[in-house]
Amino acid sequence: MLEPVSTAQEYEQRARALDDTGLRTLWAAIKAGDTPGWPAGKAFEYFILRAFELERAKVRYPYSVRVQDEVAEQVDGVIYSDGMSVLVEAKDQHLSLNVEPLAKLRNQLLRRPGGTIGVIFSRSGFTDPAQILAGYMAPTTILLWEEAEIELALEIHRVNSFRGGLRWKYRRAVEEGIAFSDLTAFFSEASP
User: Does residue 25 lie in a domain region?
Assistant: First the structure.
């Protein structure tokens, strides 16, 4: 059994110790709702960031932004990949996400440089209003990932399946104004 983890630095060390096999083991534990030593939802945040990091993306693990000694924001992480700067929101809950996490992320993006995009990773999916609203968040860009897409990227886990999926979703947002694109099409296009 894993020892309880108590600090962000220890969470980060635990995540960075994961190789591909460890990442898959953590994913199985997250899906089973059995992540000893991790507070609710925390393992999912670190799983997402480590998946990108294993594909050689630069990441910043979860952190707080302080203003005059007060916590102003809790950020689930940042991914730097292929010229993109991505603010991450990761949600591991049972109900489909409604618009509230999109509003939170949009406010965070409005305080960032214009080229920063947002991605919400959700194990429970998104309500129809959330999917529709994500496409109308201009001038910010927020992309949506559901559990099945995360599972597919992990299952296929070819070189850069997470990074490639992010690039594909971003390209679709640029070309067609779509915030939610099913990665099944990306992996179908990429198959030999």
Answer: no
Q: How many residues does the chain have?
A: 192
Segments forming the whole domain that contains residue 181 = 57-190
Q: Which amino acid, one-letter code, is at 122? A: S
Ramachandran assignment for 33, one of left (phi > 0), alpha (psi -120 to 50 degrees), beta (any other): left
Domain-embedded: residue 97: yes
Cα–Cα–Cα angle for 144, 148, 152, nearest 5°? 105
Other CB atoms within a 10 A radius of the CB of residue 69 amount to: 5
What are the pLDDT digits (tens) for 154-169?
987 666 899 999 999 9
Average pLDDT on 179-184 reads 84
Residue-by-residue DSSP string for 40-57: TTHHHHHHHHHHHHHTT-
Encode pLDDT of 83-141 as tens digits.
999 999 999 999 999 999 999 999 999 999 999 999 999 999 999 999 998 888 888 89
Is 106 within 8 Å of 137 (Cβ atoms)?
yes
Q: Tell whether 164 is covered by a domain.
A: yes
* pLDDT above 70 for 191: no
Inside any domain, residue 23:
no
CATH of the domain at 150: 3.40.1350.10
